[in-house]
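Troubleshooting log. The previous structure file for this entry was overwritten by mistake, so regenerating from the original sequence record. Sequence copied from the archived sheet and checked twice against the printout by T.R.
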Amino acid sequence: MSKRGRVLVAMSGGVDSSVAAVLLKEQGYEVIGITMKTWDYASSGGSTGKQIGCCTLDSMNDARAIGIKHDFHHFIVDIRQEFGDWVINRFTDEYLSGRTPNPCVLCNTHIKWESLLRRANDLDCDFIATGHYARLRRGSDDRPILMRGLDLNKDQSYALWGVSQENLDRTIFPLGDFTKPEIRKLASDFGLDRVANKPDSYEICFVPDNDYRRFLRDRVPDLDEKIGEGPFIDSSGNTIGKHKGYPYYTIGQRHGLGIATGEPAYVTRIDADTNTIVIGPREELLQQSLVADQINLIKYDRLDGDMKAEAKIRYKDEGAPCMVAQPTEDSIEVSFFEKRRAITPGQAVVVYEGDDVVGGGWIRSVADVD
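Regenerated output below.
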């Protein structure tokens, strides 16, 4: 074994994870690559002839070819059952509960890290590594602290808040101090011609056509019969139209409502119990506080008192100043200094101190503060 240790690298066949694996090899680690088969496009309602992104035969072959070229072992592991249980089923359940899910966080927390570490233990690996744009540093008590990636345009720390301290302790992020253009150049320098110019993937991996409504209908064939049409109402409770069923809408949605109100109208609230959707003008989307549960704290064991911080309420959110408190072991309250647009139950809130990730949780409720 290398003096730097043996590392199991998650490889999707894309440019980022491929460069991560070769970088670690160049740095003296004994690298083992692993590609996780998480889904089948056909089982998600599409054609196998239209597979794109990760988990395709081409992607797995690309990862294997890089292992051969750079002299490290590569394995493929089938985790479709785990992925279905933890990610796809919960994705469906969240929409059926009137919330908008974030499957990437669930995947990172319960699939990538947990599955990787189980396989790492089986292979006597000291570490695991991924191609995420994030960094780690050690705190004064030697605890691993997750940080934003240096390239803020590609930073993926928001999607990693659920990874436990124990799992971060064995994690390496080789790309954290690089920008995306630098990674593409490294791919060319390493001779990774098959992946150097692969486009980035932005859609949900198991909904590659980005049509989650179609996906829900495929997963729940009698969805339309079960849910049915319901009322659009305004904030005063007046009925102003009919919708196709609450799972097909998200907070902040403007297009595709199928109603005319004389001014731009947005989905401001979803009530799954009554199949009712509240719509209103843009200003009714503005909220100032939220409660999140199922939290994971990374930087501290517990938050004592009110803490001034910055919080992000969605992946591409730039973040905003706020005060954070922890009223219970499993929840946090976040109060923003200025109102935020479309705080969405089901999404994650992630709290930062500078570049450090304090922790995060699942948004369960929102409120205004006058």
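Helices lie at 15-26, 57-69, 80-96, 103-122, 165-168, 180-189, 212-219, 223-227. Archived copy saved in two places this time.
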